[in-house]
# Entry
Amino acid sequence: MDPTRFISTTEAIDPVFMFLFGACLVLLLGITAAMLFFVWRYHRSRAPQPTSQVESSLRLEIIWTVLPTVLVLAMFWYGWKEYLVLRTVPKGAMQVTATARMWSWSFAYANGKVSPKLYVPVGTPVKVNLVSQDVIHGFFLPAFRVKRDVVPGMANYAWFVAPKPGSYDLFCSSYCGTGHSGMTTTVEVLPEAEFAIWLDSEAKKTEEAGKALLEKYGCLGCHSLDDTTKVGPGFKGIWGRSETVASNGTERTITVDETYLRRSILEPNADVVKGAPPVMPSFTLKEDEIKAIVDYLKVLK
Amino acid sequence: MAASELDTRVRRGGFWSDTNRTGIASWIFSTDHKRIGLLYFYSTFGFFLVGVLLGLLLRIELMAPGRTIMGPQTYNALFTVHGVVMIFLFIIPGFQGSFGNLVMPIQIGARDVSFPRLNLFSWWIYMIGAVIVLTSLFTGGGPPDTGWTFYVPFSARTGTNVSLAVLGVFIIGFSSILTGLNFVTTIHRLRAAGMGWMRVPLFTWSLYATAWIQILATPILAITLVLVAAERMLGTGLFDPVQGGDPIMFQHLFWIYSHPAVYIMILPAMGVISDIIPVFSRKPIFGYKMIVFSTLAIAAAGSLVWGHHMFTSGMSDTAVLVFSFLTFIVAIPSAIKVFNWVTTLYKGSISLEAPMLFALSFILLFSIGGLSGLILGAAATDVHVHDTHFVVGHFHYVMFGGTGFAFFAAMHYWLPKFYGRRYAEKPALVGWALMFTGFNLMYFTMQVLGMKGMPRRYYDYLPEFATLNLVATVGSWILVTGLIIMLVNLFRGLWWGEPFAGNPWGGATLEWSTPTPPPTENFVEEPVVTHGPYDYKGSGIP
# Structure
C-alpha cells in the first residue's frame, strides 16, 4: 500500500505545535523585552521621578483585547481541525484490540494472535480498540502524537499510520498504581511481507508456549525473566527456590513447587513473597495453560 | 508568661501587646484577623515546606533511571502526598487565610472581618482537616497512592488509606467555604466611608472574586469526595461500569471544582502583583477597571472550562470542541492583566527591592505557564502532551512560578508591616536569583521532557530521558538553596532586623496609613477614603 495515501497523525499535529509555539514565543519575547527595557530605562537611578501618571487608555485596552482574541481563536480553530484527524480513522484500517491491565499490555489480532508488543505493517493505518480490564490506563505513542485513555466499560479507540519501519515507545500515560511506569512496551513497525509472516507464525515448542502465555497475560509487566525485581519477584531460577512469604499476616518459608505456582496464579495474595506489594490480580487460566507456564518456569534457569 | 514573650510584645507593640490572653491561647483563641492571619500563615507555610521536602525527594528519585532512593510504592505515595499537601493544605487556603486575613480588612478600612469568630472557626476546621490528612499517612494501609486527583476506579480499589485522606480534604473544604462567605460579606459591608467599588484595592478585588469561587465550587468537591468514600465503603458502584456507573463522571465532578480551584490559587496572587507593581513604580496601576473586569471574567469563565483536563478521556468530540473554545476565551483576561502590568512600568520610577523582584519574575513565569497552557488548550496538541511532564512543568510554572513567587513577594512586602522589622535586601537578592535560576532549570526541562513523551507520575523511565531528568534534579537543588537563603534572611529580619515603620515602600492603600504594627482594631481613628488606591499624588507620597 502506498504510504503517502494517508496524512499521518504526526504530519497533522506537528504544524499545530509549530504555529502555537511560534506565536507563544513571539508573545513571550515581546513581554520580556518590554519588561526588561522598562525596568532598565525607568529604573530609579535613571528616572528619579515618574514622568507619567496616565491611568488608562481605551485605545490600548481595545488593541490588547482584540488582538489576543483573534490569535487565540485562530489557535483554537487550528487545534480543533487537526484534532479531527486523530478522531477520523481512514477506511480499511487494520483492527487491533489492545488490552490494558495492571500493569501490562497485550494486543490481539483478527486471526487470534496475541502479542505483548504492537506489531504493525508499515504504511497501513491501524485502528487500535482500547479495552481495560481494571482501572483507567492511557495508550500513548509519543512518536505518532497519539494518546487515548483506556477506560473500563468504554469503547475508546486510537489510530495511527507508521511511515517508516522501526521500533517506537508505547507508554501507559494514565496513572494506574505501583507498576505504572513499568507498563511500557513498543510498537514494532515491519515491512509488509515481514509482518504477514509474523502474523501467521505460531509458538510451537512447549517452552515457547509457556513464555507466550506469560506474555499474553501480561505477567512480564511485573515479573522479569531474569533475576531483577520489577513489581514482583523475577522468574529466573524460581523453581525449587525457597522464599519467605506472608500468608494471612504470618511469615513462613516455602519451596517453590507446582502447588505454590498454581496457587500464586489463582489466588496471588494468599502467599505474598516478602518485600513484594500485595497487588497482583487473580488470573483464571485454563488447566493446560497453567501446566504450560509451570513447565516453562521449571526450566528457566 | 515567659519573659522573652513579654519582651517581644513590648518591643513590637500594636496588636502584639494588646491582648488579655497569654501564651499559645493568645493565638489559637484570638478573633483578631491579624492573629488569625499569622496562624494561617505559619500553618499553611509549614505545610508548604513539607511539600517542598517531598518534592525534593521525588526529584532525587528521578535523578537517574531505576531505583535511586525509594521503591515505586513509596514514590507513588510521595507524589500523591506532595500534591495533596501543596494544593489542599497550602495553596488553596494559603493566600486568603494568611495575607487575605492580615491585609484585606485594613485595606478596606475595617476594624476586623464581618464574622471574627467564624474566621477563627475556619482556621480550626482547617487544622482538624489537616491533622486528619496527616493521620492518613501513618495509619491503615499506608499513605494514599492515587495522585491528588483521586481518579476512580483506581481510588476505589487501592488498599491504601484513601478514605481518611478524602475525609480530611472534605473537612478542609468547609473552612474554605466559610472563609469565602466571611470575605464576601466583609468586602460588601465593611468598606470605609468613601471607598466606592472603584476605589477597592486590587488585592481585595481578587479576594472578592476568589471568595465567590470558594462558595460556589467547593460544595461540588465535597459531594465528589463523599461519593468516592461511598464507592469504597458501600460499593455504590456509581463510577463502576459493571454496575452501570461511569468513571468519566467522576472526572467531570472532580474538575468542576478543581479547575475553578486553580483560579482560587492564582487570583489572589494576581491581586498582590497588581498592588506591588504600582508601588515600586510610583505610578498608578494602568487599566484599573480592566484589571477588575478581567478578575471577575476569570472567576466566571474559569468555572466553565473544566473539561480541558479530559480531552483524551473518551468524552464526546462535541465536548472537546466546547471546552477547548472556552479555555481559549479564559486566556484573554489573563493576557489583559499581563499587558496592563507591563505598561504600568512605562515612564515610572522603578526600584527593585525584593517584593518587586518577585513580582516581576511572577509576570515572566506566569506568562510562560499561561502560554504553555495554550498548547494544552488546543485539542490537537493537548493529546500529545496530556499526562506528560509537560503538564507538570506547566502547572508548576503557574502555581509555583505564579502563586508561589507572588506569595514570596507578599511575604517581603507585608510581613515587615506586621512585625515592625524587616529583612536585608542583599541576601534577598541572592536568594531570589538562585530560586529564579533553579526554577527555570527544573520546570522548563520538565516541559521539554514532556514534549519528548515522558509521561507524568513515572517512578522509572527509559534511558533516553536520563540526561534531562538529571538537569531538572540539579535545578531543584539550586531552587531549594535559594529558598533557604530567602527564608533565613526574611525571618532573621522579622525578629532582629532593621526597624520598619511608617510607609517605606510608599503605598497609597490604607494598610500603609496605620501604625506599624497595626493596633488591634487597626486604625487610631476611623479612616475616610478620599482618593483611589494607587493615587500617589493624591495621598501626598513623594
Chain A has three domains: 3-87, 94-200, 206-299. The longest helix of chain A spans residues 9-41. Residues 119 and 170 of chain A are 12 Å apart (CA to CA). The mean pLDDT of chain A is 88.
